[in-house]
User: Fold this.
Amino acid sequence: MDDITFVPALSYRDPKGALDWLAAAFGFELTMAIDGPDGDASQGHYEMSFEGRGRIMIGGEWNEWMRSPASGDGTTTGSIHVDVSRDIDAHCERARAAGATIVAEPSDQFYGDRTYRCTDLEGHHWSFSMHVRDVSREEAEAAINTPIFATVWP
Assistant:
């Protein structure tokens, strides 16, 4: 697995159901499962990866400040981005077939990736992208008519 520094964590009302759905919709793989005491999934800890890369923690609503967007007004303060290595359009269709709400269809971006965005069954926001062409920083700056600062450019 990658040398990971940042690991996002999402809370779900039904974390075990989320594990199954994330596998079916996005192709995530379960890499760790620690069930909560007496089978209480809200107290469990689960981790998933994608194509053997990355890590995301999945858990329940284990206290008053860890809630699924579905348990509130649907607002979320973040999103998760995932790099896909092949056939982003098929990945989008798989997510759609599993019940994801596609909020932006796959489209080519000025920086060389093809990207789509969706929400999962509890309202978490996701974006998925696949690199489709190399773009110089100068080309990207010209496409958006603004300078870009980047310590590393793809």
About this structure: DSSP finds three helices and eight strands in the chain. The chain has a mean pLDDT of 91. The first helix runs from residue 15 to 26.
